[in-house]
From TrEMBL:
PANTHER family assigned to the protein according to its UniProt record, in alphabetical order: U4_U6.U5 TRI-SNRNP-ASSOCIATED PROTEIN 2, UBIQUITIN CARBOXYL-TERMINAL HYDROLASE
Annotated TM spans: none
Biased composition regions of type Polar residues, renumbered to the chain: 1-15
Protein name: Cysteine proteinase
The USP domain, residue ranges: 282-609
Source organism, top-level taxon: Eukaryota
Organism of derivation: Modicella reniformis
Domain Velvet per the UniProt entry, residue ranges: 1-154
Length: 612
């Protein structure tokens, strides 16, 4: 019992669907569309024409359900249609047709059992809808007067930012965006001037405010809340130039020329509250305890090869993690943002899902563990393999180190040949017949051990903080310094330097009772860190560059043994201004370069300088 409408007249093509009833739309010719009251009595002489079925949105065929009467003496069949919407103004009637599929008998046609028409339905545009109040005339005239006023001196910078936003948006083309809050019409009479841009926040996960579902969710441009598409049954996009800035905030896009100019621009932008901010140096919300993720995202957003790749490439066929990271990087560098900060909430949700809840936004984690997982996951999702330069991750961060190891012979006789003599003077006895094994291993970061802090202090030294140069802890990779383990001796030397090298300063250790932190300060130069002493092929690396400049420095503050007291910060340089900034969640402030090494560095990223 089914019917599929052709949309021409009252004729219906029959099919073998299992639904039992359907309806058409008919329109009355001689009725004024501006009428305020519906006609209850329809004259027989009025002519009605059918409207094509695409103008009727919703479920047009349903199956019958049997419901007994209260006295249980008769049965009723009822048909429940989903939300229906008619896209054209006018007065309409719905025609319902009843079919019985049992009468098909192998034929392609089904006889109509009966038909019935609904009462007239008056369809109005949003502007004429009785529930919508027109704008107050006096308020509109006042607003017009304000628009005629010239800009004050305080507004010149904001005006220039708005002009720049229009220019940026002008190059967007026909970018698609689901901004359905006001999309109940086709560009006119939609009250687009009622949009409250300061209420919009596209950073949080798009979840329906009512059902908490993330399927077919649209944002209301007035209240900023999210609703599912059934709230907007017409479901078509509004194409109006006044919405271009909202589309750009929702999904910022950059040209190669714009990306190339990011590190050369000295100009600042202004948000809707007229507060200045620097694109690329915007704070990230700490939703709960995700500061360990925020610092890593800030670092990766300022490594030029990583930043440029994720800002320019199209990731429609990649994983959701790649897409959300790309979107967040572009929002961090957005010069036309509504707010001077960005929320990583969407990315955090996907990180939690992709890591099987290993990294959560409600529990503080280790930035190094997250960085290692994140880089390897991005490498895999981008189609990378074990081969060198198989992804942007490997071509940027991957290096190679030579590892030499030799087992310790604890039963060696006195006077046996010595293989190594550690610098600390402790002589380790090895038998000469024990061989040294050598392996080359790729790496994404180098781990550096700190010397143990002093256990006791006298009255004069109790406030002294131990310090060690970075070159001293890097000597682990000079090919001479020995690292002791339970059963082996090892030494390391770098055979291939990466373009960007990540250093991990190991500060934390665990015992049976508590986690401890080594407070030793590592001193280092901001520029021209030499790696000449730590490479095996000096001539080869010399042609590529042996000196590195600091790009980012992640620090740790607080006692890890005290819950809630630890926090992470990151130092990042503005290349055009040559000014360093300290970023902790939403707080962005300038810092002198001489003050950076005074913090307890935990992760550092260094950029290779081209050989001159």
């Amino acid at each position: 019992m089914s019917d599929q409408q052709s949309g021409q007249g009252f004729r219906n093509s029959q099919s073998d669907s299992e639904r039992e009833t359907a309806h058409d739309v008919t329109i009355r010719h001689d009725v004024d569309e501006g009428m305020d009251e519906l006609c209850e009595d329809i004259d027989e002489h009025i002519q009605w024409d059918s409207l094509s079925i695409p103008n009727l949105v919703g479920q047009t065929t349903v199956g019958g359900q049997i419901a007994p009467d209260l006295d249980n003496k008769r049965l009723y069949v009822w048909f429940a249609f989903s939300v229906l919407s008619i896209r054209t103004e006018g007065v309409f009637k719905l025609r319902f047709s009843l079919f019985d599929l049992r009468q098909m008998n192998g034929t392609t046609t089904i006889p109509v059992i009966c038909q019935i028409f609904s009462d007239p339905i008056h369809v109005q545009s949003p502007k004429k809808f009785l529930g919508t109040c027109a704008m107050d005339t006096e308020e509109g005239s006042k607003r017009g007067e304000r628009e005629d006023d010239p800009f004050s001196d305080d507004d010149e910078a904001v005006h220039s930012t708005r002009s720049k936003r229009k220019k940026v948006n002008g190059s967007l083309g026909n970018a698609h965006s689901e901004v359905g809050g006001a999309s109940t019409g086709r560009g006119s009479g939609l009250y687009l001037d009622t949009i409250q841009r300061y209420m919009l926040d596209f950073d949080f996960e798009k979840v329906c405010s009512v059902s908490l579902s993330n399927l077919n969710v649209y944002a209301c441009l007035v209240c900023g809340k999210y609703f599912q598409v059934y709230i907007l049954p017409d479901s078509y996009e509004v194409t109006d130039s006044s919405l271009d800035d909202i589309k750009y905030v929702l999904d910022p896009r950059f040209t190669p020329a714009q990306v190339e100019a990011l590190d050369k621009s000295l100009s600042q932008s202004y948000d809707l509250n007229r507060k200045p901010y620097l694109p690329g140096f915007t704070g990230l919300n700490n939703v709960k305890a995700n500061d360990y993720v925020n610092v890593v995202i800030q670092v990766l957003a300022h490594v030029p090869p990583i930043r440029n790749y994720f800002m320019l490439q199209n990731f429609d066929d990649r994983s959701e993690l790649v897409k959300r990271f790309s979107t967040l990087v572009r929002k961090i560098w957005n010069p036309a943002a509504f707010k001077g900060q960005v929320s990583p909430h969407e990315l955090l949700q996907e990180i939690s899902n992709a890591s099987n809840r290993k990294f959560r936004l409600t529990e503080q984690g280790d930035p190094l563990a997250f960085l290692s997982w994140f880089l390897n996951t991005l490498h895999r999702d981008l189609g990378g393999s074990k081969k060198k330069d198989s992804s942007i991750i490997y071509s940027t961060f991957q290096g190679e180190v030579l590892i030499e190891s030799q087992p310790v012979d604890t039963k060696a006789p006195s006077g046996a040949a010595l293989a190594f003599d550690p610098n600390n003077g402790k002589r380790i006895v090895l038998r000469s017949i024990l061989s040294v094994t050598s392996t080359k291993s790729p790496f994404l970061f180098l781990a550096l051990e700190l010397p143990p802090p002093p256990l006791f202090h006298d009255e004069l030294e109790k406030n002294i903080i131990p310090q060690v140069p970075l070159a001293t802890v890097l000597s682990k990779y000079d090919g001479k310094t020995i690292q002791e383990s339970v059963a082996d001796l090892k030494r390391f030397q770098i055979t291939r330097l990466p373009n960007y090298i990540i250093l991990h300063i190991k500060r934390f250790s665990k015992n049976n009772f508590v986690e401890e932190k080594n407070p030793t300060i590592v001193t280092f130069p901001i520029k021209n860190l030499s790696m000449a002493e730590f490479v095996s092929d000096l001539e080869k690396e010399k042609t590529l560059g042996l000196y590195y400049d600091l790009v980012a420095n992640i620090t740790h503050e607080g006692d890890p043994a005290t819950p809630g007291s630890a926090s992470y910060k990151v130092h990042i340089q503005h290349r055009a201004k040559e000014q360093w900034y300290q970023i902790q969640d939403l707080f962005v402030e300038e810092i002198n370069a001489q003050m950076i090494f005074l913090s307890e560095s935990y992760i550092q990223v260094w950029e290779r300088k081209k050989a001159v």
